Structure formats: structure tokens, C-alpha cells
Amino acid sequence: MLSLRALSRALPKTLFNKSPVRCLSSVSRTAFYRPVWQPATRTTYPAFSTSCARREPAGESDQELSAKIEQEYQLEVENNDSSKLTPLNDYLSDSGFEITDVPGTHEVTLTKTFGNEQIKIEFSISDINNLDEEFDQSEEDDAFDDEAEFDSGKNTINQAGVRGGKVDVLPEDSIAPADRDAGEAPEDYPTTPAFPIDLRIIITKPGDQALEIHAVAADGTIEPQTINYAPKASALLAKSGKDAQEVQAQYYGPPVSNLDAELQLLLERYLEDRGINTELANFLPDYVEYKEQKEYVSWLQSLKKFIDI
């Protein structure tokens, strides 16, 4: 349902705006249809009113908005596929990770014990918003490529520049459709780009010392970005105060991509031994989408409840 929502968000808002309607007041209508011979009368009113004050009516669009929210809610519930939860539970059972998912929040935590180590992985479902940004960027890149090809003066596929002229044939046109790779996706049905998920991995050992690793999960891989040694693991959780200042002042080391290639490979194996591997990288986007869908439905309920009060 994420792609369906993304499509609806792309529609122009003018499609949903009501055209303004002007109407004449009762006084104006009376003025138009009053016969010429009928004298105009002036209505008098008391200087003050003794009636009780009434509650201000709701906005004109409240009922329409509430109905639209209800429609969206029903659509999400009807298209909810509960079978997607099965592989997520299977992964958690096989991997040994325990998940902490507080309803109404965007943060999720995975924890696991490995030997004498405590492993904690934090991530946020807010990273799913990067999907729209990457999709928009890919569309801009495609439009730029098309414009560049048009400006270059190169003829389109199998199209001659002049009558009887030479026909431009691209390399892929020489391959019969039946001989192309079975996994090749048609251009008319582009695949949805994957969204990267930022991870904060904390590996704690006895003595309150830890490694803090910032990594990115995308396209079935987990790539560490920085690795920081913390002599006090408890300080990593500090939001303010002296401990937080000490953590911010620490040297985080160079970017992992700048390290020796063999050292990078060994660091990746170090993480894989602890279950920070391809299986986890494939689990994360599925769970992010599942939780985001669950939170979205709950958000619709809360929004409608407030509008209807």
C-alpha cells in the first residue's frame, strides 16, 4: 500500500479542491424580486440579546475530511496482507534477535546476546521517506538523460534521420526479445527503488566498554560507515551532561571506506559473525514497511477521532 499512497500523494491537489460557489444573501434576493410599488421597510432589532450563547459550528469541510479519512482507513484495512508478518517472525526466531517496538513511536530496537557481548541495533521507520526522494531523483535523472539524448541530435532507436538514410540500431536491438535475460524488467514497469536504513549498532563487553558502529542497510547489504570505541558504554546513551560531551568530543576514526581493503573485509566478517548480515539487511526494509503501515492506520484513527469531536 506504500506505492499506492505514494501515487495518490503525487496527484495535483487541485483535483480535490471544490470550485467556489457564490450565492446571494436573503437581503439581496429580496431586493431583486420586490415590486416597485412596494415600499421598503426597515427592520428594527433590540439593542442586546438575552438568548444563551451557542457553540460555534464546526468548519464546513470537517465532515468531508472525516469521510475521506474513513475511506482511506477502510482502504488500508481491506488491502492489509497479514501473511507478510510470517516471514518477519520466522527471521526473529532463527536469528536470535529480540525486537522492541513501542506502538506510536518511529524507533525500533533489536537486541541479542553473542558470547559475552550484548548487541543492540537501533533504526527508525522514518527512513522510509527516503524512498520518495530517491524515486523523484531517479525520475529527474531519466528526464535529464532523455533531454540530453534529444539535444545530441542522435536519432531514436530504429529511426532514420532522412528518407532512405542509415538507421540507428542500438546494441540491445540486435538481440531478440526471447533471447534476453528472463530477469530483465521491462522499461514500462520500473522497479521500486530501495530505501537506505541508517543503523546504530552498539556492541558492549564486560567492563562497560563498547563499539559504536554507524552503518547503512540497503540492497541486501550492510555497509559500516564509522566505528567508534567507547570506554564507557553507558555514556553512549547520555543525552546531555558531561558524558554526552565526552562522547561528542571523541575521535570516531576515519570513514570505513578509507581503510585498507583487507581490513574492511575483516570488519564485515566480524559483523556477519554476529548476525549483522544479508539476512538482516533483507529483514529491515520489510519490517520498516510493516511498522510504518501499522502506525499509519493508527494515525488515521487518531486523526478522525479528533476531527469528529
Automatic annotation (TrEMBL):
The family database entries (Gene3D superfamilies) matched by this protein are listed as: Mitochondrial glycoprotein (3.10.280.10)
Q: Which GO terms describe its biological process?
A: cytosolic ribosome assembly
GO CC entries = mitochondrial matrix
- PANTHER family membership: COMPLEMENT COMPONENT 1, COMPLEMENT COMPONENT 1 Q SUBCOMPONENT-BINDING PROTEIN, MITOCHONDRIAL
| UniProt-recorded name of the protein | Mitochondrial glycoprotein
For this protein's source organism, the top of the classification is: Eukaryota, Fungi, Dikarya, Ascomycota, Pezizomycotina
